[in-house]
Structure formats: C-alpha cells, structure tokens
Amino acid sequence: MDSLLIKGGVPLHGDVQISGAKNAVLPIMAATLLTNEPCVIRHVPDLTDVKFMGKILQSLGAEVTIEGDTFTVQARRIKGHGDYELIRKMRGSICILGPLLARLRKAEVSQPGGCVIGTRPIDLHLKGLRALGAKIVVDEGYVRVQAPRLIGTEIFLGGRAGPTVLGTANIMSAAVLAEGVTIIESAACEPEVTDLANFLNAMGAKIQGAGSPTLTITGVKELHGAEHEVIPDRIEAATFAIAAAMTNGEITIHGARPDHMNAVIDKLREAGVKVERRGTSLVVKRGGKLQPVDVTTLPYAGFPTDVQAQMMALMCLTPGISIITERIFESRFSHVAELGRLGADISIEGPSAIVKGGKRLSGAPVMASDLRASAALVLAGLAAKGSTQVNRIYHLDRGYEKIDQKLKQLGARISRIQET
Ligand code: EPZ
What separation in Å is there between the alpha carbon of 166 and the centre of ligand 1? Predict the structure, then answer.
C-alpha cells in the first residue's frame, strides 16, 4: 500500500486547478443507465472511485469509453445485477439502485458496507423506493428490488441526521420514469444533487426544485442521451484553501464554485484566514493571527461534514480552544488519534472534539483511515516540523485527483512511496 512522505514547514504558494466533484460524478454516471442512448460526461476526475463506477457500469453491460476527463457511457442492453465484489467495495455504488429499477423494473445490488465514519444505513433509500411501488428483499448481503410499475407519490425522505444525499439521488433517479408526479420532501440540497438533477433534465426528465428541500418530479416515458460537465469539487477546493492557511502560504484556487462554499469561506474568515473571491477563483492566505472557532457540521448549506477533519487540522495550529461538533455521522473522528500522534491536543466529548490548539506539530508516521481523515493528516504533515509518513493513502486516491502532484506544484516537499 502506497504512502506519502511529507517534509513539513514549507509555505505553499502558487495556483491549483480544481477537478470535477467526486460526489456529483458518481450518481451522474449511475444515471446514464436510465437511457439506451450515449451520454457524454466531461470534467470527470481521475479517482479510483470513478474507475470503480466505470467497471460497475461495464459489469452491468454498459459500454464505457474514457478519453482524458471525458466519459462516454452507453447502456444499450443492461442486466439488473453487477459484479458483487465491485459493488460491495464502494459505498457510492448504491446509487445504481434507483436508475436500474427505473430502467429494468428490477435491480440487485450488494448491501453497501459501513465504514469508519459510521454504519451508513440505507433505510431511507428503501423507504423511498417502496413508496414508489417497489418490492424489496434484503438477504444474503444483497438488496433485491422489483416493481412491475413505479407510481409517483409524496415521499418524506428526512432521517435522524436530516436529508440523505445519495438517498435523494436514488429516489430522484427512479421517479423520473415513474407514472405521474413524485414529490420528495426533506430532499438533500447539496450542489451535487442539483448537478444530478440538471443532468437528468438534460436527458429529458422533468425535475423542479433542485437545491431546495422539496423536489417535484413529473415522470416521463423514456429519457434520451445527453452531454454534461461535472461541477467542481467544493471539498477539494476547501482542502486546498485550508492548506494555504495551515502552511502560511498563498494559493490561488482556479475552476472552483465559491458560491458552493459559503459556509466554509465564512468559517475560514472567522478563523482569521483571508479568502478573496475572484469569479471562479479563490485567493487564500492567512490574514494575521489564526483565531479559534466553533464548527458544527450540518446538511447543505451548513458547514460540510466532508471538511470537518481538515478544519480540525487547522484548529490544531490555532492558539486557543476550538470545538468541532459532528452532526452528520456518528463516528467521524478517526483522524483525532492520528493528529494526536503529531502532537495535537484533542479530546472527544460525545459528538464534539475539543481542540486545544497552538502547539507546533511534529512529524510522525500516521495511518489514513477514511478519505477526509487522510486529507487532514496530509495537511497536518505539511505544517508539522520534520517528516510525516501518511500510510494507506489508497483512501486518499479515492477522492483526490493527483493530490501529491498538485501539492508538489505548490512547493510542498512530498513524495509518494510505492510499497513493493
Ligand atoms: C454522501 O454520502 C457523500 N458521498 C459523503 O461524502 C457525504 O459525507 C455525505 O453525502 C453527507 O454529505 C457521496 O456522495 C458518494 P447521507 P451519503 O445519506 O449519501 C444517514 C466523502 O468523504 N442516513 O447524506 O451516503 C447517514 O447515516 C463522502 O466524499 C440514514 O440514516 O450520506 C448519515 O448520518 C463521505 N439512512 C446521514 O444520513 C439512510 O438511508 C447523511 O448521510 C441514508 C443516510
């Protein structure tokens, strides 16, 4: 398993280009199953999760061709079940359920596993599909759904932690071919859900209200092929903004959507970070002494849970007490112990982490555990004195395109160690 070796203490300077959003492209790729015509998807990030999704679509019978960051997918003839092992390995694959059910009226996927950040239930996905008329059997590790007919209806999709992003994607993708009108209440408002809705509408779907908690979907008979450019990854952009603040450098982030990042920009400014919006670019540097902040993760447009670990890394450098409360996932603090190995002083009180910041971090070998925790450890290594080796960085490669190369271009002393 590859590792990253980082020699910290170098202020990062220069320009970085943001890639397409992982959490937009996965449901969009799944949605290409809804038509037998070719779809062209541009600005696709080069990530292992995306490669996985391509293989899953191929295992279902779709033709997938990749040229650079452009995917052409044609699901001419497909079957209702794919490669169990592939589907089991990636939680995001759950988003093929809705499109398969809509296209074939039956689907079978492996039950997605939990992961370090939580049990990741799919009860809301199943609630929505049942509401549309699906019969569902969950056994032997499979989720088997079938529906001779899909009938539009009203569905409340809110759960114990608020809306569900991929749940909304699944139900929306099933409802576009249902008979009649479907209203989804407490729908997720994330930009990635809006991007999917825009793609579905380009395919001929009739979805209104994307970006709001109420979606109105008028079912159509069939969908046609479409072309689409994936939105920039707001989480990647936030990660580089925090890298600038942590290393006391100055980074210009190009090809972003600052309007998708209001909560992050607001919180960084409160923390003493200078963030200048210039169209689709952000110029980020420290604006003087860092200030401790309190952060609570919330559904969009609140502070994103996918930036919680990276914000915690910044607060480790910030003199004072910061409180970071995770309201979306039940155990998204796997980075706390590893940050502690770098000298951070963090204690956990229920859903909150209390960060006593201000001490200089010192490099050490650390273990990546989930995608965003890995990013936080890389950021901490960039700021720490001495060397930090981040192991198991396959987690990182799932969600960040060439992050070591992008950081190196900004002046970081970072190298990838391929395990022999
Ligand atoms: C998506 O996961 C993202 N993944 C996650 O990003 C992101 O953290 C999450 O949304 C929240 O924004 C992709 O889009 C591929 P949820 P998703 O359903 O859809 C509970 C990353 O690092 N819930 O919105 O699986 C759930 O347990 C990843 O890029 C139910 O209770 O998340 C959680 O507490 C990590 N029942 C909350 O809702 C359900 O049926 C939000 O989960 C579904 C979810």
Answer: 7
Q: Is residue 161 within 6 Å of ligand 1 at its C-beta?
A: yes
What is the predicted pLDDT for the residue at 114?
65
Distance of CA 226 to the CA centre of its chain: 23
For the chain, give every domain's residue range.
Answer: 3-19+232-417, 22-229
Categorize the per-residue pLDDT at 420 as very low, low, confident or very high, splitting at 50, 70 and 90: low
- What CATH class does 3-19+232-417 carry? alpha beta
Architecture of domain 22-229: Alpha-beta prism (3.65)
* Residue among 398, 410, 419, 414 nearest 53 (CA): 398
**How many angstroms separate the alpha carbon of residue 212 from the centre of ligand 1?**
17
Q: DSSP readout, 289-301? A: S----EEEB-STT
Cα-based torsion angle of the residue sequence 216, 230, 264, 351 in order, rounded to the nearest 10 degrees:
70
Specify the pLDDT at position 238. 98
How far are the Cα atoms of 2, 39, 56, 277 from residue 373, in angstroms, in the given order? 16, 34, 26, 27
**Probe ligand 1: pick from 56, 87, 328, 370, max atoms within 8 Å of CB?**
328
> Quick check: CB of 305 below 6 Å from ligand 1?
yes
Predicted pLDDT of residue 287: 85
What's 10's DSSP letter? P
For residue 170, pLDDT beyond 90: yes
Rg (CA), the chain: 21
Closest CA to 53 of 80, 73, 35: 73
| Nearest-angstrom CA–CA distance, 414 and 378 | 9
